[in-house]
Amino acid sequence: MNAAAGGIGTLLVQAALRTGAAVVGAAGGDIKVERVRQLGATVAVDYTAADWSDSVRDVLGDRTVTVVFDGVGGAVGPAAFELLGPAGRVVLFGWSSGELTRFTSAELFERQLTAVVALGASIAGISGGLRCLEQQALTELAAGRLVPTVQAFPLKDAAAAHTTLENRAAIGKVVLVP
After folding, report:
1. CA–CA distance from 115 to each of 70, 80, 86, 147 (Å)?
2. What is the DSSP string of the chain?
3. Domain 7-147 architecture
4. pLDDT value, residue 146
5. What is the pTM of this model?
6. Is 127 exposed, middle or buried (0-12, 13-18, 19+ CB in 10 A)?
7. What's the pLDDT tens digit per position in 13-53?
8. 50: which DSSP letter?
9. What is the pLDDT of residues 112-135, one digit of tens each?
10. What are phi and psi of 116, to 5 degrees?
11. pLDDT at position 25, please?
């Protein structure tokens, strides 16, 4: 899972762990990787390292990745895409790098992969619709089984909060507080 230390990523790590999945959490930089470890990811890696996908392969051994949640795109997305085993799925939920993950329909076909875009209104058609997903997420949050990661900034430091977002240095969601 790319962007595993982001707002959506931290929730996805927690949700995947609750299902019993082995979770590979990829994040950019030591501080973010540490946050992914704290969340309980089975493997936490720094996707800014040139050989990050090789280190994932080393840890997984003969196991394969079945689902990739990609919120980064750019050069990181294809590296994660290559980790997918046969019949795997890539779920695209953003491109914080500024570039979409690029792959071809031939790559999907040859490896029997599926790709899903889970962004905005497109998720409304997934398994019972958006309201059902929202209700499930709210139930999990209310029960304390999902805990959002929030990086709070005083309102007077709004410029610093914006810079943090622009530099992709945020951990979780950025919130301004009075």
Report:
1. 11, 13, 13, 27
2. -TTTTBHHHHHHHHHHHHTT---EEEESSHHHHHHHHHHT-SEEEETTSTTHHHHHHHHHTT--EEEEEES--TTHHHHHHTTEEEEEEEEE---TTSS-----HHHHHHHT-EEEE-SGGGGGGSTTHHHHHHHHHHHHHHTTSS---EEEEEGGGHHHHHHHHHTT---BEEEEE-
3. 3-Layer(aba) Sandwich (3.40)
4. 83
5. 0.79
6. exposed
7. 999 999 999 999 999 999 999 999 999 999 999 999 999 99
8. T
9. 999 988 865 555 555 555 556 567
10. -135, 140
11. 96
- CATH 3.40.50.720 domain residues, the chain: 7-147
Contact present, 56 and 43 (Cβ < 8 Å): yes
Contact 88, 66 (CB under 8 A): yes
In single-letter form, the type of residue at position 20 comes to G
Neighbours of 135 (CB within 10 A): 12
